[in-house]
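Dear Dr. H.,

I hope your travels went smoothly. While you were away I took the liberty of generating a structure for the chain from your last submission, since the lab meeting agenda had it listed for discussion. I wanted you to have the full record in hand beforehand rather than looking at slides cold. The sequence, exactly as received, is reproduced here:
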Amino acid sequence: MIDETIANAEKRMKSAVAVLQRELDGIRTGRARPGLVEALKVDIYDSTLPLNQLATISVPEARLITIQPWDRQVIGAIEKAILKSDLGLNPANDGHIIRLAIPQLTEQRRKELAKVVHNKVEEGRVAVRNVRRHSVDELRALDKGKEISDDDERRAADQLQKLTDRFIEEIDKLGREKEAELLEV
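The corresponding predicted structure, in token form, is as follows:
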């Protein structure tokens, strides 16, 4: 019971860190990265699909992303999705391929993006803490139901706290790395 609760908590905490990583990858820095546009939602074929399911995304140069749709008919929808996104990029469409030039970030924009990173990191911390709280509640319920002893509950809660501290540190590290990448000129 206890091991199952802790394993479940660890799995959910890892998931929270993975979500944060994906969100941070989507924040634009001065460098071109496929992760910047991969998850963009494109309205096509009466549904919404992520861009990476409609096209090949590559980075031929440090400040250029190319998007080559597998079906040329979707190029307009991809272009519209890029324009609607908050990336602030202007797509250049030649009918076969879309080119996204990544401009230098201004100092003000870097600071705004750093604030966005801080908010995302805090959301990640909150998600991990919520998993801990939920797991501690499960342990208390087991203790009240006399399925585990008070000592077992305390030991498991300590284990959960150590797990939480480890994942919070990982989240903070991701945030520091992204912020350093953002502020790098």
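Two observations you may find useful: The CA atoms of residues 29 and 182 lie 5 Å apart. The chain has a mean pLDDT of 86.

With kind regards,
E. W.
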